[in-house]
Design a protein that fits this description.
The chain has about 475 residues and is α/β, with parallel strands linked by helices. The chain folds into 2 domains: about 240 residues, P-loop containing nucleotide triphosphate hydrolases (Rossmann fold, 3-Layer(aba) Sandwich); about 140 residues, no CATH class. Helices cover about 35% and strands about 20% of the residues. It contains 14 helices and 19 strands. It starts with a strand and ends in a 10-residue tail after the last strand.
Amino acid sequence: MLTLKAINRTYQVGKRRVTALDSIDLSFENVGFVSILGPSGCGKTTLLNIIGGLDRYTTGELLIDSVSTVDYDEHDWDAYRNHRVGFVFQNYNLITHITVLQNVELALSLSGVAKSETRRQAMRVLDDVGLTEHCHKKPNQLSGGEQQRVAIARALANDPDIILADEPTGAIDSRTSARIMDILKAVSKSRLVIMVTHNESIAKTYSDRIIRLLDGRVQSDDRAVEEDRTRRQIAPLKTAMSHVTALALSMNNLWTKKIRTIMTSVAGSIGIIGVALVISLVYGFQSYVDQAQKDLLAGIPIQIDRIAYVENRSLDDSLSTEIELPPRFPDDETVTPYVPVTRYSPTTHVNTLTKNYLDYLDGLDSTLYEDMTRPLLRQADVLEGYVRKASSDPPTPFESVSSPSTIRRISENNMIFCGGVCQRGSLETVIVINSRNQLLDTMLSALGYPGDDVEVTFDELLDTTFVLPDLDDTMFQ
């Protein structure tokens, strides 16, 4: 027995809440033909879908053989639909690319019926609806009435307890409708048939009971049934298709639409191959760039300075705002060290260039490098018997004069206090001091005048001679 208690179904449409069913209380016997009448939009199809487990009620309770469905999960609803309910729709819902027999067999396969039984049961129900001779035809080769009879046969295939018919005669003529209704009437002798229809004449002719709905409420029920409170034990039902059957159905579906399947496969393959080619090109080009960078860097010689630091040092006065600065353009001809507020950055490192280190450089395998920068030495330091690294490449205050443009730039942008302009091709060095006769303290130290309070005259600096020895020079031996 089927019982609905205070069933409500509401839908949210945008910001508006629509009530499809409002407090429906109905009970149905296990056998009989029940018609549900009412205008469009009154909730007939919603009620049918809730009874068939295709939709869920919002509040209330649906009892099947006095067992509540409130706690039903998807597996329970699947088992209920596959084994206890058969559906007959207005538009048939047949699969057009398989035969009539296969359509009926499919309903049995989805319920887990063994393959050896599906053919026998399908032929039996097709014989019941008079379609045995059409079992190997496709649905589109049948008339509308014949297709509806196939839908009824499919609904009867699992021998369900309830047949739900939604406007089963809506798409066929009156003569064919009478034959369909005769079949449903015969079916109702052994099970419950619930039909939704607009045709009051058909409902009165074939129904044992008529229920009228309006605005989601029961308006009338000409033969109400009291609830059966007898509790029944229902064994769990299997609702699973075997993997072999599922694979066979899938292959049959693909083969039926083989052209579309081939086109989809080709298009998918082109996409996958295209993505693979793009990824290969990206990784290949990146590998080429990495190798090119390695080859380029391999030709750059290693340069080692006495003092290595990251922070750029400037002769700008803004760096020494907290200390007293000497006057600009003084009259005396001495150079003093310029000590910035930040003397050394935390990454400053002073290299110790000893004879052992130079011996190590001299002993390197010449195949591992292309050039070795030679140290710049003051002649006075060489004569005193020790080595002091001045610079491998002249830093900012040193300007190697190698072109007329360089000579012209120095002459135009600086005032010459002492000495003269270097001539092109000469092996001379230009020392650029700031407007307070200052030179960066690290540069003075590299020139051989360490200390923060040292004073060096212009003449002393001009008389300084540097040598550029080879690494295999005898003074390193």
